Amino acid sequence: MAGPRVNGNSKKRKAATEEHAQPEETVFSHNVGLEMQSEDEGSEGDESDNGEVDEFPEIDPRSDSEADEEYPGDSAEDEEEDEDKDDEEDEEEESEDQSEDDDISDDDLHIFPKAKTVTSDITGQLKRVFPPIEPDYDSDSSTEEAPNRVGNIPMHWYDELPHVGYDINGRKVLRPARGDELDKFLETIEDPNSWTSAFDKKAQADKPLTAEELDLIRRLQENEIPDAQYDPYEPTIEWFTGKGKEEIMPLSGAPEPKRRWVPSIWEKQKVMKIVRAIRQGRILPNKPKTASDKAQFYAIWNEEPSAHPAPLPAPKPRLPTHAASYNPPEEYLPTEEERKRWEETEKEDREQNFLPQKYSALRLVPAYNQFIQERFSRQLDLYLAPRIQRTKLQIDPNSLIPKLPSPNSLRPFPVYKSLSVLHAKTRVRSVSVSPDGAWVVSGDESGNVSLWEVIVGKEVKRWKFDGKVGALEWCPRTDVVFFVVATEERLHFVIPPNLPAPVLFATQAVLSPANLPPAPATPSPVKWTSVSAASSSSEKPILTIDLPPSSGLPKQIAWHRKGDYLSTISSGEGQGGVWIHQISRRHSQAPFKKVKGAVQLVLFHPTKPHFFVATQRYVRIYNLAEQKLLKTLQAGIRWISSMDVHPLGDHLIVGGYDRKLCWFDLELSDKPYKILRFAFHLSHYGRRTNMFLCFM
Amino acid sequence: MGRLRQKGKAGAAKAYVTRSAAVKRLQCSLADFRRLCILKGIFPREPRNRKRANKGSSAPTNFYYAKDIAYLAHEPVLKKLREHKAFAKKLARALGRGEWSSAKSLEDNKPVYRLDHIIKERYPTFIDAVRDIDDALCMIFLFASLPSDSKVSPSLIENCARLAAEWQLYIMHTHALRKVFLSIKGVYYQAEVFDQTVTWLVPYQFTQNIPSDVDVRVMLTFLELYQTLLGFVFFKLYTDAGLVYPPPLDTKKDESAAGVGAFSLQEVQHTAGPEPASKAKTLDADGKRVSSKDVRQTIKSISATVVDDVDVDMPNVDSTSEEADEDFVAQPSRSNPQETAALPTLQALNSIPQSTSTKLFSPYTFWLSRETSRPIFEFLVRSYGGRIGWPATSGSGSPFEEDDESITHVIIDRPLVVKDNETEEERERRQRRKYVQPQWVVDCINAGKVLLEEPYAQGKTLPPHLSPFEDRAGAYDPTLGLGAQDVSMEDEEESEVEDVSEPEEDAEEEAARPEKAALKAAAAAEDAAALRAAELEAEAAGVDFGTFEKTAQKARKKAKSSETPAVDESEQDMNKMLMSNKQRKLFERMKHGEKKRAAEVSSSGKCDCASLIIFRSDKTSKKRNEL
Fold first, then answer.
1. pLDDT at A373 exceeding the cut of 60
2. Pairwise CB contact (< 8 Å): A316 & B577
3. Residues of chain A above pLDDT 70, percent
4. Which residues of A touch B608 (CB under 8 A)?
5. End-to-end CA distance of chain B, in Å?
6. pLDDT digits (tens, 9 = 90+) for B115-140
7. Residue A634's closest CA among A602, A656, A659?
């Protein structure tokens, strides 16, 4: 730093000495002007400030020879100006000297020549004289230091050129040779000063930093003030304090305000407020420090309790069991595997938070190492654990089971097999009991239909039909006796033998009346053929209904309670296979053009003209009179296997192959009123049992 | 269709707030919120439907009642906490600036909150408070035994110790202690105060340090509340008992480790007047009956121990006034329940001996051996009316010395050592006294009568110590199968040894019991091994084979008849079909619990059977040796 500054100074001095005429651009220009004015006024006060001001500058013929040459005829004014300049200069130089001295003491730099003090020839006073500046090595190092004189320009202008600028004589300064990276690296290693050097753009080479520059860098790094000379803690210059410097005269001539000597009314009010509070005891100046520390106890529960209900007390911890004893019975001590299991389980999962242990004497019982933790966890429970109020059930679990009549009270019902009869070699497909309970018919796959007498157990008669017997059913009427046998695409109406004559005649009259009812208007695919009453016998079916071809084997025959209508489901495809036959009118009709799903079962409502159709999952109820769907019951059963309706017609039970039984109350919703699970494995007999269970 | 409802404006979403919302609403720090919750007894609630309470989010949070938080908002303690926050800032600034005088004045006017209103609010009646002091007592007793450190100030410890002593004094004074249990965790005490059972746990006397995984601040906050609560409760208890609260503490005695004895119970003087305590009747802490003989003895012992310079606290009370002071605690005595069943006349009331079980040890004088814990047994013996002394190594204040003639029992807990250099006098004294292990005292208290000392004698293997709290119906009772070995069954001997006025028929009943127990075992026996064990036992109990066989037969028959309902199980299954899903699940849960409990009992019982058999074989071998 010192270098440039020195340069600057020297330049300034040159400017002072050489370039008078040029307008001043230093910071002093203004001051100079002021002084000039004061000088013009001719005041003599300057003398007091600076003794040197009045000195008449002695013009050294050696130093100012040029100036003298330039301005041979100087007017007095000029001289005066000159003189001023010199004064300026002197002052400046003095200060610089000062700094220079510091510098020298700091780092042994000797840049400025020393001044000599001589007696002026003209004024006769002492005067400092500087040695003349010689334009060689000693005087100014700027030429030597910076041969490149291109000035402060962007150096990349010279990037393409072999030289980097021009020296003072206008000769090219050639670009110094720069090695490659390796050379640079080697240089950094070899040269001990390389780490304190920086790239100089003008010289295009690394120049070691001067001591001042390094010092500046250090100061910037340490966040100090960059200027080493600047002293932030300079002692203040006392202008008005201290002996002899007091200001005697007032700054202004205004009279002193009243508030300086009249007591404030507001202050008085404030003070009086406090005083009154102290008198009344509202403010205790020095509070007695007795009661605040120690809690004072008194009869807090003497006054009436509030109407609020007390908050629920926290649940108490469980009281210790025998296992927590210091000397428990042997059976409470954990076995090795129990201990191991206890140690392996997580702390939170343990049933007991301790391992029972037995000590032979009380003095051997150690401190319980989890004591504080347990107390702490209890406290955490108290304030951190969510609580929920639960009513503890103090009931006998058996009281939850609904009371049903014991099956024993429903006796008598068959409890053992009394009789078994055999069909030869084939499977029996269906069986039906006559309404009076005396007769049973059964049909098998080979087309044999047998009539059995229930009490005796004897086969009374056997019929042979061609094809399998799909279903057979007694007519529920009691005044007539016959049953229906369903074989492939055909229904046979058979009158059992040995009937009393009036019943036989009545039956014959029903099945083959003397005058047939008129044929329906639309021709039906179902053909009714009957044998005349006279020629009929119990050997042959008296009436045969031919179902439409390819309707297959009927699966089920369902009678209406009154015995006039019967419905059949055919297993074959086409029109759902549901047919309703009316015996009195000798007419058959298919009520559904199309039924969704495979029809499993059908059922007549006992009192109303309603008709239940069970598909695999749903039970649909149709009104036959109005010919519309009433309801669809959702049983929630995968595959419905059986269905029955209460004799009064209000309830329906539906059983499924998945061992569920749904009980519908038809007046309520279409969802089951109750579902019995794992109830039965449903079969034909099972279905009968259901009825007993639920409706009797 | 009703009015459209906006979501989150009613119902659970409005009734519950999460913790962070509560803190935000109260504008306090989480620590302050925690403190408030502890002091006010506010705890999180479990909403029926968490998702609905959390406005659709299922993030795991704790919920508080919105109303609880609303009440907290104008809690005076919260205001004080805010003031404290401001105070802390001011103080820190004053200290930072070095303004010592203003810091001092700030410190003097520090905001301090009081918990009186909270106590009154949480416990509207005194009974409520007594019902809930279990945890408070446990904490007080724990902190009374802790060493003080940087977090736990010595004054706090001192206060806790004082409260603990006051409670013990009250219990001893009113003879309210009912059950004691020496567990591995500490000593459980149960007392009956104002018809409320109060159970507290006291750790054994060891120095414990607060572990690092425990938040001391939480404990201290609880302790703050508990100290206030107990202060008020004790005030009421003491004043109701006609005593001065707080009982004056003799610091000199306290320094010489007199423990509870450092406090003296003073009766409240209703005559009123500034007279000094010259007329004040200073009761002995336990309020025991002091005969003139005792007084003389004590004087003697004092003269003997002048060198010790330990002033024994000397009750200067005449026994008559003492008698009047004893308040009769209505408490059904377990030994003869018909006594309380009859309506008592005034005369009968006078003639009734003061309930024997609470004055169990009144005829006896105990000496504590050096290795037994003095605070425990001093408390136990004195609350059951006994006198107790201890060596100077266990602390000062013993009312008599070891060579006192009146000592009947010595509580000793060290193995038997044969002393060779025993003087004649010492031997005689040793034979006159009964040396029992500490468990004897506790078992006597739990049994409600003085047990035979023999099984508890010094150096003997102790019978198991059972919890008095396990009186749940159907719980496994380890004493059932033990038959003749059971110590509590040897009362007929006891009635000879000691002149405890037990009703005759009671003793007879007890005598008949072992046989009954044996027969019961026979009845309970199902498999062959158990039957054999029962047979052995019956033989040992002196039941002849005929009666044994008969009972066994009967039991078998009964078992068969009890099997018949099992036949109906299929019927029950049928009925179960009609249960709704919810009911069935509940039923199954209950059945599961029942089965688990049964398994627990049976597994313990099985072990018990095994131990029984082992025990029997020991006996038979002994018999063989004798033969």
1. yes
2. no
3. 77
4. 329, 331
5. 97
6. 999 999 999 999 999 999 999 999 99
7. A656
pLDDT digits (tens, 9 = 90+) for A397-445: 888 888 877 777 777 777 777 777 777 778 888 889 888 888 899 998 8
Annotate A417-452 with DSSP letters as a single string.
Answer: -------SSS-EEEEEE-TTSSEEEEEETTSEEEEE
Report the predicted TM-score, pTM, of the whole model to 2 decimal places: 0.57
Residue B237 and residue B130: Cα distance in Å, rounded? 10
Answer for the pair A473, A557: CB distance below 8 angstroms, yes or no.
yes
pLDDT, average across residues A94-112 = 47
Q: How does pLDDT run across A26-67, given as a tens digit for each residue?
A: 444 444 433 444 344 444 444 444 444 444 444 444 444 444
Nearest Cα neighbor of A384 from B136, B79, B222 is B222
| A-to-B residue pairs, Cβ atoms closer than 8 angstroms | 245
> Which of B:141-160 have CB within 8 Å of A?
142
Residue with tokens 């005969």: B291
Residues of A in contact with B576 (CB under 8 A): 401
Cα(A372)–Cα(A588) distance, integer angstroms: 91
Complex ipTM > 0.90: no
Q: Which pLDDT score, from 0 to 100, does residue B561 have?
A: 56
* Distance from chain centroid for Cα B44: 29
Centre a 10 Å sphere on the Cβ of residue A522 and count the other Cβ atoms it contains.
6
Say how many C-beta atoms besides its own lie within 10 A of residue A537's C-beta.
Answer: 10
Q: Answer left, alpha or beta for residue B176, where phi above 0 means left and psi between -120 and 50 means alpha.
A: alpha
pLDDT tens digit sequence for A270-296 = 999 999 999 998 988 776 665 555 668
Helix axes A76-107, A29-41, angle to 10 degrees: 130
**What pLDDT was estimated at residue B282?**
40
Is B218's CB within 8 Å of A388's CB?
A: no
Distance from the B143 Cα atom to the nearest Cα atom in chain A, whole angstroms: 10
Is residue A357 over pLDDT 70? yes
Q: Side chain identity at B508, as an amino acid letter?
A: E
Does B414 reach chain A within 8 Å, measured CB to CB?
Answer: yes
A313 vs B131: CB contact, 8 Å cut-off? Answer: yes
Using an 8 Å Cβ cutoff, are A466 and A550 in contact?
A: no
* pLDDT level of residue A136 (50, 70, 90 thresholds): low
Highest CATH level, class, for B356-456 = alpha beta
d(CA B503, nearest CA chain A) in Å: 30
How far is A150 from A161, CA to CA, in rounded Å? 14
Range from A665-669, B201-205, B231-235, B620-624 carrying the lowest mean pLDDT: B620-624
How far is CA A490 from its chain centroid?
71
In chain B, % of residues over pLDDT 70: 70
A327, A375, A400: residue with CB nearest B139: A375
- Give CA torsion, residues B311, B313, B314, B316, to 10 deg: 120
Query: Chain B contacts of A325, Cβ < 8 Å?
Result: 181-184, 464-467
Q: Is A381 exposed, middle or buried (0-12, 13-18, 19+ CB in 10 A)?
A: middle
CB B25 within 8 A of CB B36: no
DSSP code at position B457 = B
Q: Rounded distance, CA B286 to CA B507, Å?
A: 32
What lies within 8 Å, CB to CB, of B332 at 6+ separation is B340
Under an 8 A CB cutoff, do A363 and B413 touch?
yes
| Residues of A in Cβ contact (< 8 Å) with B467 | 319-322, 324-325
Q: Is B112 on the interface with A (CB under 8 A)?
A: yes
Which residues numbered 348-387 in B keep a CB inside 8 Å of some CB on A?
371-373
Domain spans, chain B: 12-108, 116-262, 356-456
Whether chain A has a CB inside 8 Å of the CB on B224: the answer is no
The reported pLDDT for the residue numbered A689 is 40
More confident residue, A179 or A339: A339
